Amino acid sequence: MPGDREKSIARGADDCVPRPVDVDQLLTVVCAVLDPEGVEPSPEKHTEENEAPSP
Protein backbone atom coordinates (compact mmCIF):
# COMPACT_ATOMS: atom_id res chain seq x y z
CA MET A 1 0.00 0.00 0.00
CA PRO A 2 1.22 3.51 -0.68
CA GLY A 3 3.03 4.97 2.29
CA ASP A 4 3.68 1.66 4.09
CA ARG A 5 7.43 1.86 3.56
CA GLU A 6 7.58 5.42 4.88
CA LYS A 7 5.47 4.49 7.91
CA SER A 8 7.73 1.50 8.65
CA ILE A 9 10.90 3.59 8.37
CA ALA A 10 9.38 6.30 10.58
CA ARG A 11 8.64 3.69 13.24
CA GLY A 12 12.23 2.44 13.31
CA ALA A 13 12.47 -0.22 10.60
CA ASP A 14 15.71 -0.37 8.59
CA ASP A 15 13.85 -1.12 5.36
CA CYS A 16 10.65 -2.64 4.05
CA VAL A 17 10.02 -5.44 1.53
CA PRO A 18 6.43 -5.30 0.27
CA ARG A 19 4.31 -8.25 -0.76
CA PRO A 20 4.46 -10.09 -3.07
CA VAL A 21 8.03 -10.65 -1.96
CA ASP A 22 10.73 -10.31 -4.58
CA VAL A 23 13.39 -12.76 -3.38
CA ASP A 24 16.26 -10.76 -4.88
CA GLN A 25 15.07 -7.60 -3.12
CA LEU A 26 14.60 -9.51 0.14
CA LEU A 27 18.14 -10.90 0.01
CA THR A 28 19.55 -7.47 -0.84
CA VAL A 29 17.81 -5.91 2.17
CA VAL A 30 18.84 -8.73 4.52
CA CYS A 31 22.47 -8.52 3.37
CA ALA A 32 22.46 -4.74 3.83
CA VAL A 33 21.14 -5.10 7.38
CA LEU A 34 23.59 -7.84 8.31
CA ASP A 35 26.59 -6.15 6.66
CA PRO A 36 25.99 -2.40 6.45
CA GLU A 37 29.48 -1.73 5.07
CA GLY A 38 28.75 -3.98 2.10
CA VAL A 39 31.87 -6.06 2.46
CA GLU A 40 31.39 -9.32 0.64
CA PRO A 41 33.19 -12.39 2.01
CA SER A 42 35.69 -14.02 -0.29
CA PRO A 43 34.28 -17.19 -1.83
CA GLU A 44 35.89 -20.42 -0.67
CA LYS A 45 36.16 -23.45 -2.86
CA HIS A 46 34.77 -26.62 -1.34
CA THR A 47 37.65 -29.05 -1.22
CA GLU A 48 38.67 -31.90 1.01
CA GLU A 49 41.35 -29.63 2.50
CA ASN A 50 38.64 -27.25 3.82
CA GLU A 51 36.68 -30.01 5.53
CA ALA A 52 37.16 -30.86 9.19
CA PRO A 53 38.86 -34.21 9.87
CA SER A 54 36.58 -37.10 10.70
CA PRO A 55 36.77 -38.42 14.28
UniProtKB/TrEMBL annotation:
<protein>
    <recommendedName>
        <fullName>Response regulatory domain-containing protein</fullName>
    </recommendedName>
</protein>
<feature type="domain" description="Response regulatory">
    <location>
        <begin position="1"/>
        <end position="34"/>
    </location>
</feature>
<dbReference type="InterPro" id="IPR011006">
    <property type="entry name" value="CheY-like_superfamily"/>
</dbReference>
<dbReference type="InterPro" id="IPR001789">
    <property type="entry name" value="Sig_transdc_resp-reg_receiver"/>
</dbReference>
<feature type="region of interest" description="Disordered">
    <location>
        <begin position="36"/>
        <end position="55"/>
    </location>
</feature>
